[in-house]
Amino acid sequence: MIKTILTITLLAGAALVGRAAEPKSTGYGRESIEWCDLWISHANETNLPRVLLIGDSITRGYYSDVEKNLAGKAYVGRLASSAFVSDPILLKEVAMVLDEYHFDVIHFNNGMHGWQHSEAEYARELPRLLRTIQQHAPQARLIWANTTPLKVSPAPAAAHPDEATDERVAARNHLAAELMQASGIPVDDLNTPMSGHPEYHSDNVHFNDQGVALQAAQVAAEIQAVLNR
Predict the structure, then answer these.
(1) In CATH, which of 3.40.50.720, 3.40.50.1110, 3.30.1490.190, 3.30.230.10 is domain 3-14+28-228?
(2) Is-contact 96 137, C-beta < 8 A?
């Protein structure tokens, strides 16, 4: 088995590899650490359908269990990134992977990063991510995963404008659902089964083994249903 792994960490203010100059000014806010994690298993094998999970650290968390649940049925890769949907680097990452590998199903999400960006910007930029996927993987069947809740959400009145809250998660999920419905793309609702269950969390954002197992089972089932069709 041949596996390909690429992990990129971009530190704000750090010099790019092979270049002494400072990074270009982006004109919009990035987090203090930006990262991208790409993992393609069975890279040279074509006897099973190939699936790609696009998301963030939540996606990276349930990836291994999804791969196990679909063993013998599909090869599963991941592209996890901290980039907010408006960041052009995300579109470049997605295009790069889709141009190099054929995927039959793409299960994708973006919503838990970039809280310094408004929901209006999220609504404006999410269609660009969708178009990028459709342009670079026109044969792939798509599944949108909505964004998971927080363990403890600050009260809206007390929250900092750049802070995550469940209300903001819900707003982004609503905007994404409208786009996916208009585009005929099914939604994998990972938010509802996690809501009201702090025992599934390992911290305020991420999930423990119990929560991850539940998410992975649901993701694998959604993917299997699409593969069956």
Answers:
(1) 3.40.50.1110
(2) no
Residues in contact with 200: Cβ distance below 8 Å, sequence separation at least 6, in sequence order: 194, 207, 208, 210, 211, 214
Domain boundaries, the chain: 3-14+28-228
**What is the enclosing helix (H) or strand (E) of 61?**
helix 57-69
Give the predicted TM-score (pTM) of the model. 0.87
Inter-residue contact 223 to 213 (CB < 8 Å): no
- Between CA 55 and CA 107 the distance in angstroms is 8
Q: In this predicted model, what pLDDT tens digit does every residue of 78-109 receive, in sequence order? A: 999 999 999 999 999 999 999 999 999 999 99
Q: Which residue has the tokens 């939540």?
A: 58
